[in-house]
Amino acid sequence: MFDTLQDRLAATFKSLRGKGRITDADIDATTREIRVALLEADVNLAVVKDFVAGVKQKAKGSELSKALNPAQQIIKIVNEELIDILGGDTRFIRFAKQPPTVIMLAGLQGAGKTTLAGKLGAWLKSEGHSPLLVAADLQRPNAVQQLQVVAERAKVGVYAPQPGNGVGDPVQVARDSIDHARHGLFDVVIIDTAGRLGVDEEMMRQASRIKEQTRPDETLFVVDAMIGQDAVNTALAFEQGVGIDGVVLTKLDGDARGGAALSIAKVIGRPIMFASNGEKLEDFDVFHPDRMASRILGMGDMLTLIEQAEKTFDAEQSRKAAEKLLGGRGEFGLDDFLSQMQAIRRMGPLSKVFGMLPGAGQLKAVSEIDEKQVDRVEAIIYSMTPAERADVGILNGSRRSRIARGAGVEVRDVNDLVNRFTEARKMMHSMGAMMGGGMPGGAQA
Ligand code: GDP
């Protein structure tokens, strides 16, 4: 969604690279380019003005650090300003002291509320909570049934009106659901409310009444990031009509320009709390302003990657593998390679994982990573004996043809893998030697 903005900013920063010092004229030229980039990305005009003024003031002011080169300084300032317009610190859900915590979802029809209820439910469950989804959207045909399906998929509880029992009164359903949660030991209630195609008074009134009656701990405004400046206007209308605590951006996987969505937090003074970027349950994340800023600046989303890596990696195993790879004790073998590769694959589809690395997003090769090719590499390694995996040196002709047969590939493919692996290992060894073994501390930034 932010590709064009990323490209424009990257080009802007590139023109600063190599400059020994930055003059006021450079700063003016750079901020002009940033202004155009933001406006083209559909960022709200008032937000752009503030942003550019902030960058200019900091860049010309005394905050410049001697440790950074001029391009780095500007990137740092732009990064800080971006984090600021995106809401500053990450804002997590405020849980009620006395359960259940009540989360109300509001927004236009089609914004993705029902889908989000499932995602939020699944996420809360993975965090150790016991969520209950509540179908208080009785306007849209099938909305109740859709929520039931979503809850089942997310493996969380659902409270839906039974025919003849409160049907037609979403306020009653929402109120009853809280008692139901207390009795059923659910500690979070997620209320899915009705939306309309456009903002209207009746919808606002109903949302306000549900809010009054259930006193949510969090009222979240769910908005489709693809609708441009309407996202900002709708957010303002909901803030004034219902009162909201936080924003959830959906459909960030779309190819619209996205700048409007980035303006919401600043314009309405409420943080973006979650982001949804796909139709599947797992296409969902807590929104971290700092990570989004570094993603937009093309620094990749290193933190997300590191967090995912932490979840899936066996730290001890990785440390040993890295040590071997850099020429320490033991020899890095195909068995180490296999387990590292599998650890990476557990983080998600490879193109997605590598896409988060700095600069990798633009590489065509990354979007074309062929998972089948990777499957084939795995199959080849699986067809080897442990001794062969540990030491590719023993792979003579007959071993190679046995492995090829076992993996259902040509001998050529086995040779190819072994050669590339040996080359790569050689390169890592010389890198290890260059770093003198003292990895992070010894390495020069
Ligand atoms: P509601 O009317 O606000 O409850 O919206 P729904 O949850 O029914 O979503 C409307 C449509 O948007 C559905 O087809 C969803 O599958 C789709 N949708 C929801 N979130 C996302 C998202 O993050 N990305 C994409 N591509 N589609 C989404």
TrEMBL record:
Pfam families: SRP54, SRP54_N, SRP_SPB. It catalyses: GTP + H2O = GDP + phosphate + H(+). PROSITE patterns: SRP54 (PS00300). GTP binds at residues 107-114, 192-196, 250-253. The keyword Glycoprotein does not apply. Keywords: Cytoplasm, GTP-binding, Hydrolase, Nucleotide-binding, Ribonucleoprotein, RNA-binding, Signal recognition particle. The keyword Transcription does not apply. Residues 434-445 have a biased composition (Gly residues). It is an enzyme of class 3 (hydrolase). Its EC number is 3.6.5.4. CDD domains: SRP_G (cd18539). Part of the signal recognition particle protein translocation system, which is composed of SRP and FtsY. Involved in targeting and insertion of nascent membrane proteins into the cytoplasmic membrane. Binds to the hydrophobic signal sequence of the ribosome-nascent chain (RNC) as it emerges from the ribosomes. The SRP-RNC complex is then targeted to the cytoplasmic membrane where it interacts with the SRP receptor FtsY. NCBIfam families: ffh. Composed of three domains: the N-terminal N domain, which is responsible for interactions with the ribosome, the central G domain, which binds GTP, and the C-terminal M domain, which binds the RNA and the signal sequence of the RNC. HAMAP family: SRP54. This is Signal recognition particle protein. It comes from Brooklawnia cerclae. The lineage of its organism: Bacteria, Bacillati, Actinomycetota, Actinomycetes, Propionibacteriales.
